[in-house]
Amino acid sequence: MMSEDSDLDLPQFDGNEPDADAAPVPATKPPAGGSVATLADEDEKTAGDLTPVFDVPVNVSAVLGKTHIDINSLLKLKSGSVVELDRKVGEAIDIYVNNRLVARGEVVVVDERLGVTMTEIIKDGDSQ
10 Å Cβ neighbour count for 95? Predict the structure, then answer.
């Protein structure tokens, strides 16, 4: 059993110097097929790749319509007042996830509660 570290013949190391005796790290090469998987390779992604984010909460909003009114009109609103929106009856509503338009749909009733049936999925840039 060794009694002290001074009995060991160890080089001094302060953590900032590279080890001169260490073997160089070889450069990585692409696999034998010649292609390297990148984030741009979306063809090979599956729903299973999203497993780590399945439990992340998001805010979902279904917007029936919008309007602009002045403060004076807002203060005059009372129970039974009607606020006219910019949508027509039967027109698709906008569905937002975290304030980003992702779909359009129709209002439905499910067990005496309101719901939304998605009729159109909005891809990036197709917000009109």
Answer: 20
